Amino acid sequence: MTSVKLYPPKPEKVYFFGTCLIDMFFPQAGLDGIRLLEREGIEVVFPDDQTCCGQPAYTSGYQDEARAVAEAQLGLFAEPWPIVVPSGSCGGMMRTHYPQLFAGTPRETEAREVASRIYELTEFLMHVCHIQLADKGRPEKVAMHTSCSARREMGLAETGPKLLAQLGHVELVEQERAAECCGFGGTFAVRHPEVSAAMVEDKTQAIEATGAEHFVTSDCGCLMNIAGRFEYQKKAVWGEHIASYLWRRTT
Amino acid sequence: MNARENILKRLRERSDGPLQVPESDFSVVTGRDWTPQERVERFERLITSVHGEVIHATLTDWTARLEEVLKAKSVRRLALGREHPVPVAARAALMDHDVELVDVDRDIEDWKREQFETVDAGLTSTGGAIGETGSLWLWPTPDEPRLISLVPPIHIAVLDADAIEDTFFDVVEAHGWASGMPTNALLISGPSKTADIEQTLAYGVHGPRELVVLIRHPRESA
Amino acid sequence: MSVQIYTPEAFHRQAHDALGNPQIRRNFRKAMDGLMSKRRDVFSDWDLEALRELGANIRLRALAKLPDLLERLEANCQANGIQVHWAENGDEACRIIRELCEARAARAVIKGKSMVSEEMHLNQHLEAAGIEALESDLGEYLVQLNEQTPSHIIMPAIHLNTDEISEILHDKTGTERTRDVDYMTAAARAQLRERFMAADVGISGVNFAVAETGTLCLVENEGNGRMTTTVPPVHIAVTGIEKVVEHLRDVPPLYALLTRSATGQHVTTYFNMISSPRKPGEHDGPEEVHLVLVDNGRSNIYQDNELLDTLRCIRCGACMNHCPVYTRVGGHTYGTTYPGPIGKILMPHMLGLEATKDLPTASSLCGACGEVCPVKIPIPDLLVRLRREAVGEGRGNVPGAGVKRSRKELLAWKGWQWLATHPTVWRGSTMVAGKLRGLTPTKLGPWTEYRTAPKPAKASLHALVKAHQHKDGEGRS
């Protein structure tokens, strides 16, 4: 599923697509992503009219509604700059499904062009910025949950862990069945709550068993799910978006 | 219209129109370029990993190895053909032996229970083998029918080392299987097995509990 | 153990029951973990992507030429002496098979593993006609003894553990209670050997039907498939019309993918290729061989370029082995012949979306199924497609399309669409949500039965970026 992708040289400017979950619930993650990019000497343009990539409707079967929302985003990226998305899930939607969604419509070419410029944040930091991280934090263990979309749809199982590996005082601990889904899946968590709960329960147990008191993810859907489960059980384990973690450890 | 015509009509008149025919690149299932020794080693490693036994012999001493196998496994009744050089040589070697040789050129209806209940082992020749997967290939004949490699609790197969090829694809291509298939062609890779009881392997669930492969090497040195 | 009937309509209740059954949870988790690790190991020295690409292309080529290949298969089978029958649906296939049995005055049928025969409920049909149909694959035999259906397409009895199986064999066949798997296997061997000898007809499935040579290929480990197709005087093979491949050379790559994907085996014990009934002079094998080609909704799936991919399937079961939902709820929960991801994309076509409407949504779209599929079926995309069909947005002819169309839900999505296409309103509402965050309900339906409710941030990313740029602007000026 992982296709070989040729990465461009580091650009002067990028667009940042923050995603609706980050906008509403985890804005700090978005801001930290922007700061990481800026520290690499890149000017970050945040189109103010951005809302949502359209994925919730798309995966629920409401393709027309998804297309209308996606279409509202298509026009926001007029310059040929890369578009950085701090989410494998929304990134996967825009890179993989926009071309399908607009196939046979007048905006097909534009959708393909936009899709070709989509990068997930850790992917961009790693492969385009060739970021070098200097860890300033105290020694600790951290667990990582790479989202299924980042892992499979975008083929980015390695970028998060490799960035964490640059942090000299951080020990990345491997959880059992790391590649398994946390059970979020958007409306899946609501339509099949018991199955979803069984999945997130196993995921939290696996993370807890690593001995890490802290976990990071590259997707705020997973974060909301896993951290929400930990919090519900009043566990000490807490999570944050990898962008915040990287920023916090290196400033 | 009958079912056949209805089905074919629906398939021919599909709503989304004719389909593109993609190319198939078979290079991933061929071109291993193993040496004869690598093939033998690989065959042995794979077939023994699934509980097959391999005994190395030469073209001249293999019947002596066969006698040892029969003795070691207490085989009293051995089913085998009469015409293929393998059973012919085996019969000659076992002529004055205390193993009873059971003729198999009889219609199964005439000796079904006898074959199911009183034969200890079946001996067959093989067409060759596949190094990649540790598989024997057999084209059963009137002389060596289908069931003698299946019904008796032990199957002894005689294989020539130089008849081991790299892959299944290579065998199908090299021997032109597509130009004429027999009633039954078989790949056999180990004794009968099951893992249907909680993933625990058990052998001999329906077919042979044991598969012994006598590999005949052309030279004494092998 | 009492007989439980599972239906796709009751998916939620069945999932609830399975999730609350520690035995089921343990049995499946253990089995699936083992299968996943074996598959990973067995492919480790392969160019797996090239092999999957080849597998997908072979299947796509076969589908592209499907009507021609079926005719070619028929002609070559007939030339070899195999009689070919066509059935539009399961009932017709059952009738054809029953009539073939009746023509031989058959009373006892022995069966090799065949999911198509499960799909059409063949055993019940034959039994209603006074013909006993006994499963001979050990897993199928156990499931049949226990009056259940298979919970996995490759490992039918995977929901049962050793103790449960021991109890079933003890109850139904009088064997000793034991944990000795060799003993239980030997007992089943002895019982089934009698039945092979006595059977009037053997019925099997088909893994690949080769058009070029008129050959039926069967993949198995136990030898019951060879017994079934060799010992009784009549062999009836039953298969879906999509199982045809063009050339004999197409078979090795698919076989390589099938065994490795299914059980992590380099190869199965037997690969059984049947091209004709017993010929004059031959001493064993059936006098008659029949091939029953079953449509049962497949030609309908075939109409649509996207849904067509469903028909690539070679029935390895890797999608269920890797599915986090299947692993937790087990095969019976789906209430369908084919469970797991492939079941979710196949069964709606066979049973209609009315009955199966909860199946396409029972996925987090994690993509594990599509990642391991040996013929690269885009299962997650097909799940989304069927969700679309269910809410009435599809253009296909999936039976029961539109069953989940709901004015209320549509309005909600239209409202969401309006909000997300009016950026000023969007920004305003995230601002309001942030200001009112103290009022966020702590109960959000099912979500908060297991997790805390997410709280809107005080300031949205839009607001944070604005402040951040303002600060930067000041810094620069």
From TrEMBL, chain A:
Residues 14-95, 142-226 form the Cysteine-rich domain. This is Fe-S oxidoreductase.
Automatic annotation (TrEMBL), chain B:
InterPro entries: FTHF_cligase-like_sf, LUD_dom, NagB/RpiA_transferase-like. Pfam families: LUD_dom. Residues 40-215 form the LUD domain. PANTHER family: LACTATE UTILIZATION PROTEIN C. This is LUD domain-containing protein. It comes from Litchfieldella qijiaojingensis. The lineage of its organism: Bacteria, Pseudomonadati, Pseudomonadota, Gammaproteobacteria, Oceanospirillales.
Automatic annotation (TrEMBL), chain C:
Keywords: 4Fe-4S, Electron transport, Iron, Iron-sulfur, Metal-binding, Repeat, Transport. It comes from the Bacteria. Pfam families: Fer4_8, LUD_dom, LutB_C. PROSITE patterns: 4FE4S_FER_1, 4FE4S_FER_2. Residues 304-333 form the 4Fe-4S ferredoxin-type domain. NCBIfam families: LutB/LldF family L-lactate oxidation iron-sulfur protein (TIGR00273). This is Iron-sulfur cluster-binding protein. The lineage of its organism: Bacteria, Pseudomonadati, Pseudomonadota, Gammaproteobacteria, Oceanospirillales.
